[in-house]
Amino acid sequence: MQELTHYIDGAHVKGTSGRFADVFNPATGEVQTRVPLAGTDEMERAVEVARKAQPGWAATNPQRRARVMMKFVQLLNRDMDKLAEALSREHGKTLPDAAGDVQRGLEVVEFCIGAPHHLKGEFTDSAGPGIDMYSMKQPLGVTAGITPFNFPAMIPMWMFAPAIVCGNAFILKPSERDPSVPLMLAELMEEAGLPKGILQVVNGDKEAVDAILHNEVVQSVGFVGSTPIAEYIYATGCANGKRVQCFGGAKNHMIIMPDADMDQAADALVGAGYGAAGERCMAISVAVPVGDDTADRLIEKLAPRVEALKVGPYTSGNDVDYGPVVTAAAKGNIERLVQSGIDQGAKLVVDGRNFSLQGYEDGFFVGAHLFDNVTTDMEIYRKEIFGPVLSTVRAQTYEEALGMAMDHEYGNGTAIFTRDGDTARDFASRVNVGMVGVNVPIPVPLAYHTFGGWKKSMFGDLNQHGPDSFKFYTRTKTITSRWPSGIKEGGEFSIPVME
Hints:
Blueprint: E1 6-8, E2 11-13, E3 20-25, E4 30-36, H1 40-58, H2 62-78, H3 80-91, H4 95-112, H5 115-118, E5 123-128, E6 131-139, E7 142-146, H6 154-165, E8 169-173, H7 180-191, E9 199-201, H8 206-213, E10 218-224, H9 227-239, E11 243-247, E12 252-256, H10 262-274, E13 284-289, H11 292-307, H12 328-343, E14 347-350, E15 369-372, H13 379-382, E16 389-392, H14 398-407, E17 410-411, E18 413-417, H15 421-430, E19 435-438, E20 454-455, E21 458-459, H16 467-472, E22 474-482
Parallel strand pairs: 7-8, 7-10, 8-9, 10-11, 12-13, 12-18, 13-16, 15-16, 18-19
Antiparallel strand pairs: 1-2, 3-4, 5-6, 6-22, 11-21, 14-15, 17-20
């Protein structure tokens, strides 16, 4: 059995804790490799290497740091196919979706090439007699990120690219379910010219996470995952004096107004609800048509589209719509939630429970499900399913539909489909959700804006990527400078004021 490694101080390092996790091929259900789970000692070693390496990197001017990112972009494009195949093999995504995972991370790296501009401070000359004031944006030191299985390329790059270009060292603790691509990214960063010890990958579970949270050298922690773990990491990290940003769960609503183009809305819902087997934090999992006539027309359009979805392994070609979910446990949880919807009275319009793929019976495939007549008290509405399940909740008025999105505990993303600009503007202005789409089902901002939800979808005050990332990974130091033209005798004992 092949064993993966950690990546510490510029080298692949075998695990020493004696603990491992199985990495599955989700399409076959077979264990394809094992990944070491670091103990506290291994994490502390990686942090110490980073601590020693970081000052020299911070002293490198921002333009030279940006050139490493330029070269990294070239290498990502060179190895795109190899990265996508490795990602699909461990996650189960289709190859085009896996390449998109890499591409959306690459776009953040491209934004980071502008670091010399984003790291400029401010200057005020003659703030007082002979006094100048200016600010510096300086790196934090050693930073860390804990990333999820569903985007094993994109989210690590969302974190480590801005952290590193700001002059920090970065410890990446990726998901143990699909760890190969993060290791490949670390190799490419060093091929691009990054000094050893600045980006390190330490695989692990809760023990490794706690070792990050309790290490005094680590100055900041980023996390993406479920809300309960986000709350734990945020509380623990803050209690230990760290800067923390944590992104949790989601239950994204799409409101469909009576005037919407139903074909456009149905196509959008199928792609947003079932792409990547629904394992996206920005997936649309709740459709909210306004009015029974709208709901009937929508279901009529949706049902044949959902029934026609092609499910299969990434090796079956680019016409596969989605692949397996990541683990047998994930599949079991989705099936349990589907059954709860049936038991609680929802109408299962498209039933994917008996889905089976010949030759891949042991894989973690889940058929597509479409519910109608879901109500807001049902478990399938309240909980994040993270699978190919779309719930339709009928609203009688726009205000009722808006209220559903606003009242839900999660506030990651939402969308409205309408031809009416007044309704769209009202929705965008009033809804208490962090990312809003108008006739756009998955409103993930481009790299030069920021990504982040509200309510229980985010803990912290700064979003991911875009301008916020340069704020999160730097500290501001303000200097007041005076070069007196002469020496004044005696001290001043009252607070200086402007005259």
